[in-house]
Amino acid sequence: MLLTTPCTDLRFHGTNLPKWLRQTVTEAFAIEGFSVSPIFTARDVSDQLHRFDPDTDATVDRLARTHDLLRQAASADSQTKERLHEEAVLLNVEVAESIVMRYRNRGVPIEDLVQVACLGLVKAVRGFDPDKSDHFLSYAAPTILGEVKRFFRDNAWTVRPPRRIQELQAEISVASAELMHRRGGVPTPQEIANELQIAVSEVNEALAADGCFSPRSLDRPNASGGEDGPSLADVLGDDDAGFARAEAVVALRPLCRELSERDRRIIYLRFFREWTQARIAEEFGVTQMQVSRLLTRILKQLRSQLEDLDTNLDTVNVESAASTPARVTTLPTAQTSTRTVRPMRKSA
Predict the structure, then answer these.
(1) What CATH architecture is 2-155?
(2) Containing H/E element for 304?
(3) 244-330: which CATH number, 3.40.309.10, 3.30.70.120, 1.10.10.10, 1.10.150.20?
(4) pLDDT averaged per 10 residues, the chain (length 348)
(5) pTM higher than 0.70, yes or no?
(6) DSSP notation for 46-80
(7) What SS3 class is residue 240?
């Protein structure tokens, strides 16, 4: 990985970092769920070095005061211990804030990340043993970072992939940064796979889940078409409603043949000729209410027969399926004859 020094334009490897900062910075690249740029800005590094450098007076003073507070808390009663712990937390809030600053603009509000980091700081204050170490920062930084990583892993995903994929994405992020530095270009999936000694299919699977953390908008222009090109939503496939209607036609055809000549005639006039119920009633010499009841009975009969045939079309609208003009030829007008059925008049 590459880091830019705060005072010059020189760049140096992570292995040349101070030992106290090396592990924290390395883990920063291993946050699960997104790719991180392999180069920190000068401002980022300057802030981190200023706040974490154990040689600065501010850091030395903070560490000494924190260690003194925690040593007193170790032998104090519960009420005094809580007060001393609170003072230690307030004294090191700046540490928690500086750790999460490198994760800003990652799709999570920075205020939420600060809260998570402060929770990790509280855990670090309560878990630190001053008798085993006199450097609180070496214990607090990994604890805070672990809390932030856990938050990203468990709560920040739009679509949460398996844990294995999340961890692999972190490894790929670190390996990509190292390969980019060594070779001067973006590594291919095969090169990453060789670096990690895993199958290239696993790398491709992890890279394919890259948008799960912060997916792109469907209104975003397609990369191949430029800003004026079609959006992602314009090129996405969709189920064709015609398939369900075609399936309904195939299922309805034998059922329509079983209808009486009058019922088929009513269906034909209503859905193929688009006659109103009043006009059909006039054609048959009955009332509009009678035609409505006939249509209700016929359609109910067809639905029931479709369910009995187990065609999985119980949710298909039969009226919509019957209204396609091309279906005129699929509805015979008589069972044994091809002649045109004449309108039936009600006998006097």
Answers:
(1) Up-down Bundle (1.20)
(2) helix 288-308
(3) 1.10.10.10
(4) 33 38 43 35 42 58 84 87 90 87 77 89 89 83 88 72 81 89 88 92 85 65 66 73 79 87 91 90 91 92 79 48 44 37 42
(5) no
(6) HHHHHHH-TTSHHHHHHHHHHHHHHHHHHTS-HHH
(7) coil
